[in-house]
Request: fold
Amino acid sequence: MEIEEILLEMKDTSELMVDLAYSALLYDNEEIAQHVIELEGRVDEWDQEVQKRAVERAIQDKDVEKALVFIRLADSIETVADGAVEIADVVLRDIEPHPVVAAALQESDTAIATVTVPTGSPATGQTLGEMKIASETGMWVIAIRRGDTWIYGPDENTLVEQGDLLIARGPMEAEEELRQYIGG
Amino acid sequence: MEIEEILLEMKDTSELMVDLAYSALLYDNEEIAQHVIELEGRVDEWDQEVQKRAVERAIQDKDVEKALVFIRLADSIETVADGAVEIADVVLRDIEPHPVVAAALQESDTAIATVTVPTGSPATGQTLGEMKIASETGMWVIAIRRGDTWIYGPDENTLVEQGDLLIARGPMEAEEELRQYIGG
Reply:
């Protein structure tokens, strides 16, 4: 992967981590919080990889400033990821996140909704891309729980199955549309 | 404001800051980057306010753990905001963010799009709430540039005017829908 591609992966992952961390808090869900911690390891590795490649490229290009942009961006994105980890850490500690906090977060401009795909849902057997959930409802699926397993950061090729628990993010007003669209 | 409400404001503001920071990077826009820095001041103040009130409440309730949840959450959200500031800082430094980075970010799962409201657009004179842009298109408006002024974090009551530049965030697939919906 080129530096630019790594930075893109870092950006998308850090945003997913923040979304997941707030979901973990909202639903007091330690599994999701644990996944945020795991993703942090990946972001850390990428950060170091960007630093290494940026310096290597600087030796070739003799372009100091370009190398610094890459290094600083990677470090900045890592800081966003650190914040997500700290939030997840509150969920994972013995201290119970206070229910009032979770209730307050539900009033956020951006809602995080969970919807179970019911029997006979038009979503069953379709991919997220085919369902166009995002453009049809305004919510987008950030994770899926299927039985005991979790799919984090699903993409357009991810198949939706009956019984899946979809965790989706979007504007408050779109939550009800998602529910109707999935038939949940 | 109660502690819970402050935490909610902090959460929404930190997410807006991350979105704005990436927009600033994508469009090499120093005005947006500057606004991220300004918002940081607010998040800092809120962080201190949460700490103060959490301790005050602990004295009343004798509940140490609850106070710690509030304090740690506020600190965590502040870290997310710090990451956004660092990203904005790359844009504001003399070092030019490398165009290749901006190009790479355009491939992100979540797109940031800019659309100018053209003459005769159905959006003109309506509020964002009336337009239901988010649920109709899957993108939501995070900022509006109107002439020389900026509206950051507009809400459902914000009126859209002809010539407005809308900065919106959402899944890649929704960008074209937004363009068609606004008639831009």
Notes: The helical segments of chain B are 3-26, 30-61, 64-92, 99-105, 128-131, 133-137, 175-182. Chain B has seven helices and four strands. The CA atoms of residues 15 and 48 of chain B lie 19 Å apart. The radius of gyration of chain B is 19 Å.
